[in-house]
Each structure stands twice: as structure tokens, then as C-alpha cells.
User: What shape does this take?
Amino acid sequence: MSLNSKIPAGSIQEKWTTYKSTCKLVNPANKRKIEIIVVGTGLAGASAAASLGELGYKVKAFCFQDSPRRAHSIAAQGGINAAKNYQNDGDSVYRLFYDTIKGGDYRAREANVYRLAEVSSNIIDQCVAQGVPFAREYGGLLSNRSFGGTQVQRTFYAAGQTGQQLLIGAYQSLERQVALGNVEMYARHEMQELVTIDGKARGIIAKNLVTGALERHSAHAVLICSGGYGNVFYLSTNAMGSNVTAAWKAHKSGAYFGNPCFTQIHPTCIPVSGDHQSKLTLMSESLRNDGRIWVPKKQGDTRNPNDIPEEGRDYYLERRYPAFGNLVPRDVASRAAKERCDAGYGVGASKMAVYLDFKYNIMHKYGKAEATKQGIAHPDNATLYALGKEVIKAQYGNLFEMYEKITGENPYEVPMRIYPAVHYTMGGLWVDYELMTTIPGLYALGEANFSDHGANRLGASALMQGLADGYFVIPYTIGNYLADEIGTGAIATDHAAFVQAEQNVQSRMEKILNIKGAETVESFHKRLGKIMWDKCGMARNEKGLKEAIAEIQQLKKEFWSNVRVPGAINEFNTELDKAGRVADFIELGELMCVDALNRNESCGGHFREEFQTEEGEALRQDDQYSYVATWEYKGDSEFELHKEDLNYEIVHPSQRSYK
Amino acid sequence: MEHYTMNLTLKVWRQKNNNEKGSFETYQVKGISSEMSFLEMIDVLNEQLIVEGKEPIAFDHDCREGICGMCSMHIDGRAHGPWAQTTTCQLHMRQYKDGDTIVIEPWRAAAFPVIKDLAVDRSSFDRIIQAGGYVSINTGNAQDANSLPIEKQKADDSFAAAACIGCGACVAACPNASAMLFVSAKVSHLALLPQGAPERKERALNMIAQMDKEGFGSCTNIGACEAECPKGISLDNIARLNREYIGAMFAGDK
Ligand SMILES: Cc1cc2nc3c(=O)[nH]c(=O)nc-3n(C[C@H](O)[C@H](O)[C@H](O)COP(=O)(O)OP(=O)(O)OC[C@H]3O[C@@H](n4cnc5c(N)ncnc54)[C@H](O)[C@@H]3O)c2cc1C
Ligand code: SF4
Ligand code: FES
Assistant: This one.
């Protein structure tokens, strides 16, 4: 099958407007006859389910947590971008578009990204109208901060809890639709299989996680909004339950997977403290606005950081990238931290950490400003510190507390220790301009799709994309498909395709339970994570990737012959649920390595050691790899590559420079 | 910070499902690092149980960073354990020392039936939100965000109320199993903003009515909820809710 991205004709500024005014519509009476399944209630899913319910479609929404309000989006800290230009600092739709394309290292589709930038403003309006309490200035207007990879202030935020506030906004709208009877909510339900009939997505098999019962749900369209797959690495900043199962089952049913190897490693996370570690905690990128990153100039320096004088510190980001300094994009900042630690300058017990230090800004930026405001003429250091600390607290208080709870150290007193960790996956189900996958009637939204971030996502752009997809894109594009479905009528769940899909799920669960082996699911997950981190993580090379593929195939064999899962199917069995997710992660891990091996270049978060400039920066191979690597599932360990060529009409790819 | 390891005795509530009766089981765990989180300690126990051929302890958790509101353990008689303003998942083992015994139970409230072991059903909270915890605005209806200036203090207060994670610790901590702190946080979040004003009265009335219907107890101003709330939701919100409710009850123009 050839890939048709369905990009509308016309200039980039006109494409979306033209599309909206010419796409097919479904009239209100017909909408009530059409059912839509939304898998996931994070920002993408909740916003889509609410908006589609408002339009009058019959919606069923699913999530595996006990409430839609708990989706992983809740944990997003730093903020959401929008091209409002409220700061009058030169922002525009074009600049947000340009920054995103460049930040993504020229591996994203221009038309999608432009649309994203275009609708970004509407998102902020919508959220404020819902009652999202964004940070405000004393004049009552909205406040902004900067994020990496940009030189304007376009990030809207609610302290360090932006995702929480945005999700609660979407969740409230969703619950309103539930109350109105337009959306049926299925919490503690997990999609286990996609059902297709005559090549079209027609429903899902979901497992009721409380009773273990399998349920058949039919619909005229299915939306996968199940989030990212960073947990393939075992340790990541994702919530413990985040998984790839919904997307992977869709892939195995025929949906192509785009750029699976594009993973984002976030530079500022709390370092691993030991083997017991179950997840990693992010310290928001917004901290890089006010924190300076450094390591000692002396290798293996074990002095207390506060005892190391200015001249003994290497502010390596400011040194290497004077134009962007601590605000370089994530991939660049992460590699720079790894480089320093690998070279022996790391700090902390493990030596795999760098400092993120707020002292300078507490004293000189905020302390001084506050002193001036309060008319204190010659403040001493203690006064400056006390004044500045309050400002920092107001902006990042919850993050500082989180850091202290985890590490037992007070980050107002000693610099934070941070290290990169897996955070986000740019890859995902391939979608066209309408967010439709290669299966008609199957859509993917939010982090689950591959679309807008190319090889590296800029900070505060995932929340924007999830909400753009759900609030402002899918309500239009889905109509264009459903307009031809109004005559279909209800889809019977006793169709052979449903029976077969349910049987597949049932026998797979039985198989897992009957292995009764010796090794726990957790242990397999950890082993997979180690292979992925060592060989398909921050730096990759041909030899390592080939080894990883062999090791993962071996791991898969062991899993299916030696995993131990206690309990039964017809009960609340979290171990069985986890086993299913890990089995899918193992298969995905292999595809990620296959994709990383195929891509003989470095771009964004994908760093192939064989392809770097003399200064150690990523070296793209535009003549050969300016495409989306899109994979078709052909059977166990068999994937066929299809390419979607990327044509840059507006932004001309060049070597990214943040110097 | 000095790190150390410890051996512990755990008394954990085990209950197969909502129909069967539960009881405490005692377990020993060894070599627990002071750097672990509380849930990582439970992970160690569960791995041990699986290897011994026993069923692991079912418990709810997801983000493990204190924001999703999913974790819900009653530890040594306190909702979310001994640390102030801390969720179960953020509690760390440096709180404990070698030889300690820890008692772990689920949230106990009629409106939160036990599903299994330490996991309970909190869907009653979602239904309270369905009763009115929103602003009725459809996608696409919004005006420019800055056309509605909001006093910073009001926005900050609203945010402080909106920080509620819906965990239910307030209910678990309350001798009456009242949900007033949760409901008041939501009502305050929206009542403090101009966007929430048009539906203010119905919201307070309907959410309280739903709360009563779900079987939560009444509030007798004990204050245990505030003391155990991991997000520091203040009792002031309950006072505000009472004002909103009374105002709505007596409003002739409702
Ligand atoms: C710690 C952290 C901080 C972040 N901070 C920021 C930030 O400041 N700014 C920013 O822009 N981005 C940030 N991100 C990224 C951003 O939060 C995510 O990319 C985004 O929230 C994903 O939203 P989503 O709706 O696609 O998926 P999610 O929020 O992950 O939701 C997935 C949903 O799918 C459901 N689900 C999954 N599988 C199944 C299944 N099989 N069956 C049924 N349901 C299923 C889940 O229950 C859930 O409801 C951050 C990420 C992390 C980890
Ligand atoms: S008020 Fe506090 S304790 Fe109650 S649900 Fe909200 S966060 Fe939890
Ligand atoms: S697991 Fe999310 S708050 Fe504890």
C-alpha cells in the first residue's frame, strides 16, 4: 500500500482553512446514529471524546486507570506553547511552526506542524474558558515563560502542574458529556484488540480489569489516544501503567508504525539511585529558565558543590552554545550531559549526574529585583537570598518539594543533581493529515501518533499537540470519513471478526497464565529496559543495534516459556495485565532497534555514533533519510519499510545550530 | 544523607474481592534501602510473593510522583502515611528504621468499596463531578484568553483549590467519611473564577446532592481531612462551600 498523507493543496497558510471549508459534514440527526470509540482519556482522548460528544456523536471512552482524570497527562509539569505573542516579543504562527520543524531536526511534516501552530491560540482560549487557572501577572493577564529551543516566551503554565490543570479542564468537559448521556465512560478497562471488518476499524475487544471479563464494543470509527511507549525502557518519566498495547495491537492489525526509534531523552531528571528504582522523576524543563547547569572543571571532584568556587565550575551548555545557553533543545542538552559524565566529570555517588543550580538567579535575578521593588538600598547576601527564594518558590515550589521528598536534599540550599532519562516518544502510529492511520476509520491522536515533532519534540509542545488533535482537528477530519458511514447502521458485535478477536485475547491470556515459569514479569521488563537503554538509548551504533535485536528475540522466547504470572483471568489481576503489556513492549523494542538500524544518520533524539560532526553534533543525511520510516507488520519479527518522503517547501533544512 | 538498609514486618490487608471478608496477613521484607519509595518496598514484597507462588498484593498507583491521585494506602492509621502533604507514592523509606512494623490498609469508607486488597472503587468522585463540577462551554465557543483579566490573587487561590488530585484521603481520614474537602475544592476552584459564575448556584447544590446520594458522611468540622490531604487543600474551602450552598439554597432567583 502506498502512503497518502492527504495534504491539502494550496499555500501552507491556506491548507487548513481550505480543508475545513470543504471537508464533508455529518448533519446533527445522523451524528446520533454514529458511534465512536475513544481509547484513552489523557489530553488527546478526553478532549476528543468531549468535543465529539458535544457535536452529538455517540461516544464510548476507555481508560485503564480508575478515573479518566488520572491519565499520564496529569503529570506534565512545565507548560503548553501557543503562538499568542502576548509578550510582544516577536512570536507568530510562523515562528512556532519554524521552531517546531527546526527543533524536530527536519523530520516532521510541514503541513501538520503549521496547522498545529495555527490552532495553538484556540487551545489557550478554550482552556481559560473552562476554568483552567493558568499563572497570571498582577495586571490579571496571562503569564508566560520560556522553554528550550526557542527565543520567545510563549509557554503558558500553572506552576509546575500544567498538565494536571489542563487535564482537569478536559476531564470536566468529558464528565459533562457523560452526564448529558453523550459519552459512556469505561474506566478500569483496557483495549486488548482492534476489530476490523472489510478492512475498516469497527470496534475493539476491551478487558474489564476489575472482573477480567472481555467485552466487545463496536463503532464506526476508533480513536487510539493511548499515549507514548517510553516504558519500553522500563525506567522512564512515564507513569507506571503507560503502555503501547493499544497502539501495538492496532499495528498488528494493519496500522503502520512511524519512526519507532525516535525517542526523547529528557535532560533534567532525578538520577537513578539503585536497582530498586521503579520509575524516574522529571524536573521540568522550565527549571532551565532559572537553573544553570554545570559540572566541576576537575574530574572526580568530590567537594560539596557549594564549596566549589566559580572558576572551578564548567557551565558547559553556556560554554558550548552561547546563543541558547541552558535553553538548548532537549536532545542537545542530554547528549552534552552524557558527554561530560562519560568523560569523568559527573557528580554524586554514581558519578552519572550534573548540577542544576539556582543560586545565581535566586540572588542576582530575583533577589535584586525584589530588593529594588521593596526599596531595600544595600541588601546583604542573606536578604537577597531570602527575597529571591520566595520568587523561585512561587514558580517551582512543587518541583522543589518533589525533589526533596525523593532525594532528601534541599534544592534551595544545594544544587539539584540531574541526569537524562527517557521521557517521550516522537514515534507512533503513522497518520495522515486527517490523523487517520493506514486502517480506514482508525485514528491516532496525541503522543500515540508519530506526527508533529519529527526527531525531537520541543518542550511544552506535547500538551499543545494532544489538545490540538482532540479539540480542534479530529472534530473536523472525522466528519470527512463518517459522512460516508451514515448508511452503515449499528455494527453487530456477533460478527465473526469480533468472535475471532475475542478468542485471540482469551487464548493469549490463558497461554500466559499456563506457562507457570520461574521469572517474574518485572524481571523481563527490567531486562528489556536494559537492552534498550544500553543499545537503543542516547547513543546507538550498528553493532549494538544488531546485538540488541538478537537479545530481544531471545528475551521473547524466554518470556513465552518461562514467565510466571499468578492468579486467574476472571479477577482483578494486575500481574496478568502487566504481562500483556510487557509482551507487547518486547515486540515493539525489536522494531525500534530495526528502525534505528535502518536510519543511517543522526537526527534529533536519534544519535547514531557513526554519524556526527567533529564537534559531536548530530549529522543528518538529508539526501537519503528525509523520510518518515513507516513499518508494516508482516508477522513475528518481520516488518516491511514504507517511506513517506518529506518535502520541505517552506523551511529549508540546514544543520541545526544553537550556538 | 546517610543511606542504610532495613528489615521490616508488614501487616497488610488482604481481601480477595468485594464479596469476601478480608483480614491482615503478616510478611517480612529484608534488605530494604532507605532510598526506596514506599511503593518500591511493596514492589519488593510482591516480587517475593510471586516467586513463593503466592498472589501479589493488589494496589492502585500510576504516576508515582504525587499527582495522579491513584495511590491510596492507609499506613499505620494515617491516610498516605506519616509525612505531611505527601502521597503514598512519595513517602520514602528513610522514614523507617530496621525492625519496624508497618500496618497497611485500604481507604475505608462506604462510598469507596474495596475491589481487592488495597484497591478501592472511587468512581463516586467522578459522579460528583458529573453533577456539576465543570463550566458548560463547548469546544470552539471561547473568547480570547486575555479578554478576561482575572485578579492574580483570585487566580492563585483558584489554582490552590484546583490542585486537588481526587485521591480520597480526606474521606479516608474523616471519622464520618465525608467528602466535603474534595467537593469544596472543586466548587472553590470554579467559584473563584468569573468563568464559573453563571453556574455557581446549581453547581454547589447539585454536587452536594450527589455527594449525599453516594453515601458519604456529613461534615462535623473535625479537620482530619485537611491534616491528611497530600495537596494541602485548606478547610477554608469547606467554609466557602457552605457559603455557596447556603447562598444557593436561599437565592430566590435560582
Ligand atoms: C513527567 C512528564 C512531564 C511532562 N511535561 C510536559 C510539559 O510540561 N509540556 C508538554 O507539552 N508535555 C509534557 N509532557 C509530555 C506530555 O505530558 C504527554 O506527551 C501527553 O500528556 C500525552 O497525552 P496523551 O493524551 O497522548 O496520552 P496520555 O496522557 O498518556 O493518556 C493515555 C490514555 O490512554 C489510556 N490507555 C492506554 N492504553 C490503553 C488501553 N490499552 N486501553 C484503554 N486505555 C488505554 C490511559 O488510561 C490514558 O487515559 C510530560 C511528560 C511527562 C512524562
Ligand atoms: S481534597 Fe486532598 S485528600 Fe481530598 S481528594 Fe483532594 S487531594 Fe485528596
Ligand atoms: S501514584 Fe500517582 S499520586 Fe501516587
User: Anything to note?
Assistant: Chain A has a mean pLDDT of 96. The two ends of chain A are 43 Å apart (CA to CA).
